[in-house]
Amino acid sequence: MAGEWRLVASTDDIEEEDVIGVDVAGTAVAVYNVKGKFYATENICTHAFAFLSEGVVIDDIIECPVHQGRFHIPTGKPKGAPVSVALDTYATKVENGKIYVRLDESRAPDS
Amino acid sequence: MEAVAVDDLRTRKLTSPEANAKLLAAQREIVSRERLKPFTKRTDRHGLIYFGGHMSIVLGTGYLVYLATGTGWLIPAMLLHGVMLGHLFAPMHECSHGTAFRTRWLNETVHWITGIMILWPPTYFRYDHTGHHTHAQEFGKDPELVLPSPSSWMDYVYYVTATQLWIKNIGWILRHSMGRIRPFNRQFVPEDQLPRIFLEARVMLAIYVGLAAVSVALGTWAVAIYWAIPTVIGVPVARAIRIADHTGCTEGKLDLRTYARTVRTGPLTRFLCWNMPYHCEHHLAPSVPFHALPALHAEVGHEMNPVDKGYWAVQRDVLRHHLERKFRFRIVQSL
């Protein structure tokens, strides 16, 4: 189940430097477009549990909408206070304009 | 009014999922993410202009202090200089949100410089401020609650003179530098980050002790004349302005439209406060950088608290209608 590729969106669904939230088999996942490359992380901020898909993408950083905690999108690494616990990241692939996510997560070290 | 037991504070985490979900839902009721997105764009240009301008003014008023030394103009010059120094809270606050500059190292550098200049531990403030945004205007939960109802005239004096500020901030620095933190403050900081908070306080304390030691060794009053005394006598102006952010607005419930106040004021005040007179809009969407707040106000301001007439009017209203006349003294913020 976790290792399956799951269709989550079309590439047209996510503007460049933006994010959307999707549900993948009951897991809240944020899918990002960073300069045409697509990434996926867990969608819940590890600090105060807000949806990151409501936040702001700045280059390869996602900023939480509530307290402006920041994470590095490709690795999920926290980028300083108020966040200190990394996000789970998920593998993505794009085929024929469709974005797929696989839920076997990996996690960068916390700060 | 909610009483908060110390035992509760030891275990409670204020930035709970429920509280933040409610906060975000309240924001979306007023403005959708799509509508908000254009206002969240970050730049370095605006921050550089504002910080460069602000520091130029500080240098200019510092030069006035130099020119006034030995004359009867020294105290007025130090007061003016101190007012400008006291407003460095504005860039420190903006940097705490990470919205002052697009480039992170610029943001963090200015955060530290301004924090040291006004005795606010920058990293601890960033944590503390999360509690303010999640629980604005909730007694016992909002760490920055200013003059909640009922407050007395003595509370007003205690706040505006910055007595409360110095007791709180110097208390943070001393306590944290000894590896201690009060339960109320601890709830904002993740356990694994406490060593960073303590290190930050030790670094700040070392800087201040170092400055004092160098001053004594060289027999110079420069630090006192150009920084310490002006800050102490000038910061009450910034405190009086900050009263307008929330005091007298809705308390005890999450209402983004009415629990903060946007104040009509002149360009110099807006500049020195880095647009924080648009305080309703700042609380509506703290991801929006200071330079975009006037535009956000034009977009959604009509849905928020009516714009107040000015800082003098707000002070008058607070003094007339918000404060109890009886002589009563209550420490509300030195938790």
Give the helices and strands, then pairings.
The complex is a heterodimer of chains A (111) and B (335).
Chain A: E1 5-10, E2 18-24, E3 27-34, E4 37-42, E5 56-58, E6 61-63, E7 70-72, E8 88-95, E9 98-107
Antiparallel strand pairs in A: 1-9, 2-3, 3-4, 4-8, 5-6, 6-7, 8-9
Chain B: H1 6-11, H2 17-30, H3 33-36, H4 45-68, H5 74-86, H6 89-96, H7 104-117, H8 122-134, E1 151-152, H9 153-160, H10 163-177, H11 183-186, H12 194-218, H13 222-246, H14 267-272, H15 279-284, H16 293-300, H17 311-322, E2 323-324
Parallel strand pairs in B: 1-2
Keywords:
heterodimer; A: 111 residues; mainly beta; Rieske Iron-sulfur Protein; six-stranded antiparallel beta sheet; three-stranded antiparallel beta sheet; 0% helix; B: 335 residues; mainly alpha; two-stranded parallel ribbon; 17 helices; 61% helix; 1% strand; globular; disordered N terminus
Word description of this protein:
The complex is a heterodimer of chains A (111) and B (335). Chain A has 111 residues and is an all-beta fold. Chain A is built from no helices and 9 strands. In chain A, the strands form 2 sheets. A 6-stranded antiparallel beta sheet of chain A has the order 1-9-8-4-3-2, with no helix packed on it. Chain A has a 3-stranded antiparallel beta sheet with strand order 5-6-7, with no helix packed on it. In chain A, a hairpin with a 2-residue loop joins β2 and β3. The N and C termini of chain A lie far apart (30 Å). The mean pLDDT of chain A is 92. Helices cover 61% and strands 1% of the residues of chain B. The two termini of chain B are 16 Å apart. The relative contact order of chain B is 0.16. The chains are: A mainly beta (111), B mainly alpha (335). At the A-B interface, loops of A face α2 and α8 of B.
